[in-house]
Each structure stands twice: as C-alpha cells, then as structure tokens.
Amino acid sequence: MESLGSFLEVRKALASFLEEDIGTGDITSDSVIPADLAASAEIVCKTDSATVCGLEEVGVIFDLCGCSSRALVKDGSRARKGKRVMTVSGNARSILKAERVALNLLMRMSGIATETRALADAARPVKVAATRKTAPGLRYFDKKAVVAGGGLAHRMRLDDMVLIKDNHIALAGSPQECVRLAKEKAGTAIKIECEAKSEKEAIEAIKAGADIVMLYNFTPAQAVRAIKAITKMGLRRKALIEVSGGVNYKNIRQYARARPDYISMGYITHSPRAVDFSLEIL
Description:
Blueprint: H1 4-22, H2 27-32, E1 38-45, E2 49-51, H3 55-64, E3 68-71, E4 78-80, E5 84-91, H4 92-123, E6 127-129, H5 139-148, E7 162-164, H6 166-172, H7 175-186, E8 192-196, H8 199-208, E9 212-216, H9 220-232, E10 240-244, H10 252-256, E11 262-264, H11 267-270, E12 277-281
C-alpha cells in the first residue's frame, strides 16, 4: 500500500467486509470450540497454476481478528496446486472468524491477477489494461490485482482523466468539439482520451488534440488499417492508441499485431474466475 492514508482506507474497507460477514458473532464456532483454544493453520493453493495476489490484504484481515500471519510467497508470484502461501496462528475462534473473508478476497484477487497474466503474456509487447468495470467497493483490490498480473490499472475514478465516450459525443457534439471543450475546461494538466468508432473519428480526435484515442469495437483488421493510416499521416506520435471492445484471449494476439499502445478489457475485473485456496488447520 502506497501511503499511510491508503493503508488506513484499505484497513477500514477490510474491517467492513468482516462486519458484513460476522454480524453479531460466529455462533457455530462459539458453540463448539473452547474460547481459549489456540491453533495454527496454513492457506494452500488448490488450482493447478495461479498468480497469487491479496496476501497483504489477507494479513490485515487476520490482524483485525487478533491473529498473526506470515506470507510465504510474494504477491505477483506464481503458485501451483499444493503450494503453501501463508501460515496463520492465534485463537482458534478468531482464525475461523477471518477465514471466509480472507479466502474470498484472496481467491478473487488471484483470479484477476492470473487472467491478467495470461492476457499480458499473449499480448506482449503491447500492454493490457483494466477498465472501471469493477464490483462496487472492490475497485482498489481489483485494480491492484491487475497490476500484480502485469497489467495497467488505467483510470481509477472519473476525476483521474477525461475519457470522452459515445454518450458524451451524442450529447455534446462531434469528437472534435468534445476534445476542444475538454481542453478548454479541464486544463492542460489533465489527460484527454476520446473514443472513436471509425478510422475517421480517430484521426479527427488526434488532430483535435486528444492525448489518447480509443479504437472501440474495431476488428483486428480494422485496427491494423487505422493505425497504419494514422502512422502514414504522421500522427502516430501525437497520441497514444488504445484498443477496446470485443477483445478476448482467443483474439488478443491479432489485436496486438496492430501495435496499439495498450489493449483494455472489462471482463478481467467484471467476470473473474476465482483461484481456489483453502485454509487448513494444522
């Protein structure tokens, strides 16, 4: 976590996750496990191949419940089935109180990191980026997982940069007019990205002064042609080019051949496949 402020915000979010899950108490553990029983446990990867992410957050979750933990691997590292990634010790009831929230977050973040790693490897040297299609309340964790998997976080919030999309253009006018207005009102310190649904719109946006142009829902062949045309006109160095829409693992290599600066995909964070982990009492 980058700063004390972000650490405290993350700790507050994790505490709220625990409150949501625990309610007034774990009536099962409180009924069958002695209050003073100490225990040790380990978290084990149950998936054949995974990129691990979320151990820092899992450590905070156990700490909030009064337990000690030790990560055995680093976030971003690869793990195979049977790999121990963390040990935990403390009051038995407390370990079980933290178990589900800790595993849920670890499984989700590792799932996002694993998928990002596979896409980043396939698209190399083109970068892979996330979008704002994250679960409410989980954006920080989802974006961190993308970075751990070798991807780019892209913008975190609406106030990070200007991103002119189809609805903005429909309401405010042409791409050129939207870029002009954004440059006038947002200032020169704010990056401006403009979505384009055609080669013509992309060229117009660059000429209007957009810092980044998004080729949206282009086929791989259309992306190749558009970037070649932009390069031929001497505009390639004037703006970064992002490809987005319709990209998946099956076709990402085709899009990468167009050599955009990066490829963004929403499904990395809105439809992640969880990596299976279990907590086992020793």
